[in-house]
Amino acid sequence: MSTRSSESALLSPKRRWLVASFLALSSLLFACTAGSSDDDPAKTDAGEDADRDDAGKHRDASSEGDADEEDGDVDPPSTSSAKFCVPISSSSIVSRVAALFANVDDRKDLAALVGGSTGSVTRNANGDPTYVHYDPTGTESDFTASFTYDSDDLLTYFHYDASGSEADTTESYTYDSDGLPTYHRYDASGTDADYTESFTYDSDGLVTYYRYDASGSDADFTESYTYDSDDLITYYHYDGAGTADDVTETFSYDSQGRLTYWKYDGVGNDKTASISYGSSGSTVTGTAGGSTIKLCK
Known about the structure:
Shape: elongated
Oligomer: single chain
Number of helices: 3
Number of domains: 1
Strand content: 25-35%
């Protein structure tokens, strides 16, 4: 029986605190992930959005997992944090859904810049910002931000207008009936940094297909995912459109759901890891022997 809960359970407005819990737990993983960086299509800094053309390189993204380590053991993921677990730190797989909601939270956090006489914030009945005007005295960093939400209080439209600059941006979001994002469009006025994201899910709310389409560049890519009956990931494929950057990863598990074999097939950068388990913990051999292993169930 899988211990990973469906993503749709996280996204109900009545359980919005669960999203925050997941993002907090996800941040713990970055500390034990090898070779991660910030150059991912899901950057969340509003001031860095114009850099997204360079963000389509999946190798710069960190791996995603759901468990904390304690006393040499890894606890099973709780239902409040689990989406899907990538069980090896050398993996290049990224949680695109978590990144999108981090993006949304970052937009809402613009309201936190306003204080005292520096501007004004208007909020809806749920406390979410609908309009932000930031106007600090003696600076040129004025901006306004507008937000629109659906009936489930999920952000559907965002517009950022930077006074005196061409940094205006517009974003739109579409969700399925479970509140899972299916489409995201980013439009940077006067630049070639526009892009779209598309998501497809299985019946358990796990991402099976992701597409990133960057306007005016060759940074487009797609990702596909396969899972076993316990919702453990078994196959991942990254296809960099028009490039030779394709990557395939495969995963095998024992009867207890522990990773026993991992293979990374990338252009000129193949890796393997075989994992055995004993009373003192796990032993990793192969070309990824320095990897951190995370138990997913």
